[in-house]
């Protein structure tokens, strides 16, 4: 879309991802507001579906299409910066973000070799959603430890409620289970090395992760009818108390019906090993500065506009995510206070499998996670196949 005032002397090209209608509306409103306030800048904004955007991102950077581009914190950002496709935020912009009380964790999340490569847009946390009324009816409390979690699962099953919902047709919801089990059992340093391809998936520590996960599957703790469906298909079963809990990103709150929303609770993935630092899955979405962007002055004006006004709060409300400034949690973000508290307490953050892993490891791993969810939940075959894919990459 082109917003082109007749008097514009400079252009600004913005690439971003559209995941839902409220998000699209928020972006267009914000860009229109900037264009009105800056008539000397011709704004070209390009909204893309997420998967298409991921496929074309590197090519668009190399071809110099955009001045600002949406992207993700994690290994994919590090890869783009390492290939000199991006430039970092300058000292003036970092000073502005500090003045505007951007949370240090949102800036450190894109710090590479001492430089910050991402302007934070929003972040969110993964954890379990559940119906408060169901837990109250059964006398249950949100579990803090793995033993307590297993007890909740057993109580739910005894009450004829399937404990866990998972919709894994697109595989990434299953990756959240792998990420969290590995983080809680083996720690963040091991997890990062594994996802970079530096450790074999046949390592005994990885097998322990699948042994634990397989135990839940073989106990019939997962709701079978939705495993091969998209993740949002689990929600109606939760509303009817057929499913007790679902591991999800807090953005899922955008799908809660108004009548149900106040009854939906959130708790973090339980602690499994005392003394293990508690890292949380907290994807961070950012704007990056393509090295071949042609209009650096215009893009700095747009970033300053985002930092100084309420634009980031509006985007977060549309996404049901968290804005990156301190004190910016909005009452309109349904799980905002609970998830912000989880983020603050964490020893650190990871950014999700397909953002932390080397890109060419994602597809074979996702394919084999889907296979693992199917009976007989063959651990040996799953690990051998993923390791074979890793071996080819090396």
Please tag this protein with its features.
394 residues, 4-stranded mixed beta sheet, 7-stranded mixed beta sheet, 17% strand, 17 helices, alpha/beta
Note the topology.
Blueprint lengths: L1 E2 L6 E8 L3 H17 L3 E8 L1 H14 L4 E5 L2 H8 L3 E2 L3 H9 L4 H5 L2 E2 L2 E2 L2 E5 L2 E6 H6 L8 H13 L3 E4 L6 H15 L1 H8 L8 H15 L16 H5 L3 E7 L14 E4 L11 E3 L2 E7 L5 H13 L2 H9 L16 H10 L2 E3 L2 H4 L2 H15 L5 H15 L1
Parallel strand pairs: 2-3, 2-4, 10-11, 13-15
Antiparallel strand pairs: 1-3, 4-14, 5-14, 6-7, 8-14, 9-11, 9-12
Helix pairs in contact: 1-13, 8-9, 8-10, 16-17
Rg, rounded, reads 22 Å
Give me the count of strands: 15
User: What best-fitting shape do the alpha-carbon axes yield?
Assistant: globular
For the largest beta-sheet, the strand count, sense and barrel status come to: 7 strands, mixed
The residue ranges in which pLDDT falls below 50 over 5 or more consecutive positions are none
Report helical residue fraction: 40-55%
Average pLDDT number: 95
**Alpha-beta classification:** alpha/beta
**Total of helices:** 17
Assess the beta-strand content as a share of residues.
15-25%
Distance between the termini: 42 Å
Can you give a write-up of this model?
- It is a single chain.
- The chain has 17 helices and 15 strands.
- The model has no long low-confidence stretch (mean pLDDT 95).
- It is α/β, with parallel strands linked by helices and 394 residues long.
- The strands form 4 sheets. Strands 1, 2, 3, 4, 5, 8 and 14 form a 7-stranded mixed β-sheet that branches. It has a 4-stranded mixed β-sheet with strand order 10-11-9-12. Strands 6-7 form a two-stranded antiparallel ribbon.
- It has helices spanning 21-37, 50-63, 75-82, 91-99, 104-108, 132-137, 146-158, 172-186, 188-195, 204-218, 235-239, 296-308, 311-319, 336-345, 353-356, 359-373, 379-393, and strands spanning 2-3, 10-17, 41-48, 68-72, 86-87, 111-112, 115-116, 119-123, 126-131, 162-165, 243-249, 264-267, 279-281, 284-290, 348-350.
- It is globular, with a radius of gyration of 22 Å.
């Amino acid at each position: 879309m082109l917003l082109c005032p007749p008097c514009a002397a400079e252009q600004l090209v913005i690439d971003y991802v559209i995941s839902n209608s409220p998000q699209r509306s928020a972006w267009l409103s914000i860009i229109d507001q900037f264009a009105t306030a800056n008539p000397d800048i011709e704004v070209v904004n390009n909204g893309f579906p997420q998967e298409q955007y991921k496929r074309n991102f590197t090519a668009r950077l190399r071809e110099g299409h955009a001045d600002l581009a949406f992207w993700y914190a994690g290994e994919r950002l590090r890869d783009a910066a390492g290939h000199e496709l991006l430039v970092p935020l300058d000292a003036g912009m970092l000073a502005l973000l500090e003045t505007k009380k951007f949370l240090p964790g949102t800036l450190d999340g894109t710090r590479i070799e001492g430089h910050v490569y991402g302007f934070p847009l929003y972040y969110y946390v993964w954890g379990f959603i559940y119906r408060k009324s169901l837990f109250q009816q059964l006398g249950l409390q949100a579990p803090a430890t793995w033993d307590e979690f297993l007890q909740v699962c057993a109580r739910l099953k005894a009450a004829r409620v399937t404990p866990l919902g998972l919709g894994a047709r697109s595989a990434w919801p299953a990756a959240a289970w792998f990420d969290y089990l590995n983080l809680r059992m083996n720690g963040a340093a091991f997890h990062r090395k594994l996802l970079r391809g530096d450790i074999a998936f046949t390592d005994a520590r990885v097998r322990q992760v699948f042994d634990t996960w397989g135990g839940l599957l073989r106990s019939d703790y997962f709701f079978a009818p939705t495993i091969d469906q998209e993740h949002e298909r689990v929600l109606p079963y939760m509303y009817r108390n057929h499913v007790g809990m679902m591991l999800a990103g807090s953005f899922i709150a955008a799908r809660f019906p108004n009548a149900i929303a106040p009854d939906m609770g959130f708790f973090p993935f339980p602690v499994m090993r005392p003394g293990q630092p508690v890292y949380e899955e907290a994807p961070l979405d950012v704007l990056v500065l393509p090295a071949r962007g042609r209009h650096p002055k215009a893009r700095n004006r747009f970033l300053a506009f985002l930092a100084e006004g309420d634009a980031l709060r509006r985007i977060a409300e549309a996404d049901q995510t968290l804005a990156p400034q301190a004190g910016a949690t909005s009452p309109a973000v349904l799980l905002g206070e609970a998830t912000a508290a989880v983020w603050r307490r964490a020893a650190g953050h990871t950014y999700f499998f397909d953002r932390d892993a080397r890109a060419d490891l994602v597809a074979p791993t996702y394919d084999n996670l889907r296979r693992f969810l199917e009976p007989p939940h063959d651990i040996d075959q799953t690990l051998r196949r993923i390791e074979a894919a890793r071996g080819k990459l090396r």
